[in-house]
Design brief:
This protein has 313 residues and is an alpha+beta fold. It contains six helices and 15 strands.
Length: 313
């Protein structure tokens, strides 16, 4: 006599379904949680950078030597900067039939809204590094654009060294030389640990425990964050090249470092239920993120440009 088959048994027994969705699309960015966001009223933030200091000069005392030279009369000059907010939007459309009849284990709308929120965060993180309003006016400018040439250390495909890291750190002067972060993709962190091992250690240098308990590498007491949104490329020979950033975060004064920008009226990612679509049986939930990136002082950011972190140049 044949026993009960698995096929027949399955007809009266459902397998358990874990609630929620397990992420498989992940780009590591340890820095994002520590980026301060500044809320602004209006659709742009205007600030002024020092361009030239008002002239001064030594003069003699009496006897006709006290004539004030022209150089002492030159005024200070300034450069105005405007950082506009840009709009990131995602619409979650769910068929009303699906939403109301297939939402026992997981909310169909909730899952789609959560995915859209993740997408907005990922797009902000991409633009934080690679945004370029010159090539796409809908984007805000990221670090690759906002780092001035004078703040770059040109590695020219040369291998990463401690000397290059030191030179990079020396470029950051906005907080009187204080550096709040180093940031690079995982390949650069692996090369950094390789340099430590070459010194005879175990390849595990200083580690900083962040306020949320996350541990990150450190160099010279500076947290060294992994950010895989910083791109890698093929260099000369068999090398892999990337960029390493150093900088400061703003302290609330809007004068010294970098900060994310968002609208004060509706800050961060906000969700609105739009309602039912006119020409379909869908419900629409809209997510918005009005945001940008400000580098208040150009001395608050620096970039080690095109450094080899793998292979042979």
């Amino acid at each position: 006599m044949a026993s009960l088959t698995l096929t027949e048994a399955a007809k009266i027994q459902q397998n358990p379904l874990i609630q929620g969705v397990i992420e498989s699309i992940v780009t590591v960015n340890q820095f994002y949680n520590y980026l301060p966001f500044d809320q602004i009223v209006g659709n742009a933030l205007l600030y002024t950078r020092e361009n030239a200091i008002g002239g001064v000069a030594p003069v003699g005392i009496g006897g006709g030597s006290n004539v004030i030279p022209a150089g002492a009369k030159s005024p200070a000059t300034f450069t105005p900067v405007t950082t506009p907010l840009k709009a990131l939007i995602g619409d979650a459309l769910v068929d009303h039939f699906i939403e109301t009849t297939m939402g026992i284990q997981n909310s169909q709308r909730g899952v789609q809204v959560a995915s859209k929120a993740k997408g907005l965060g990922r797009e902000y993180q991409r633009q934080f590094v690679l945004g370029n309003s010159a090539t796409d006016p809908l984007e805000f400018d990221g670090l690759a654009v906002l780092t001035p040439t004078a703040q770059k250390v040109l590695a020219a495909n040369g291998l990463l060294t401690f000397d290059l890291l030191d030179e990079l750190i020396s470029k950051v002067k906005a907080k009187d030389g204080q550096v709040d972060f180093l940031m690079a993709p995982d390949s650069a962190l692996r090369k950094y640990r390789s340099l430590l091992r070459a010194l005879g250690g175990a390849g595990i240098g200083e580690v900083k425990t962040m306020p949320d308990g996350t541990q990150v590498d450190m160099y010279r007491g500076i947290p060294f964050f992994r950010n895989d949104w910083v791109p890698e490329a093929a260099g000369t020979g068999t090398s892999t090249i990337t960029d390493i950033y150093a900088g400061t975060v703003d302290d609330g004064s809007r004068k010294v470092g970098l900060a994310g920008l968002t609208s004060q009226v509706q800050s961060g990612i906000f969700v609105s239920f739009v309602g039912e679509a006119e020409n379909s049986n869908d419900t629409i939930t809209r997510l918005r993120f009005y945001s940008s990136l400000a580098v208040f002082s150009e001395l608050g950011i620096a970039k080690l440009d095109s450094v080899a972190v793998a292979g042979t140049p």
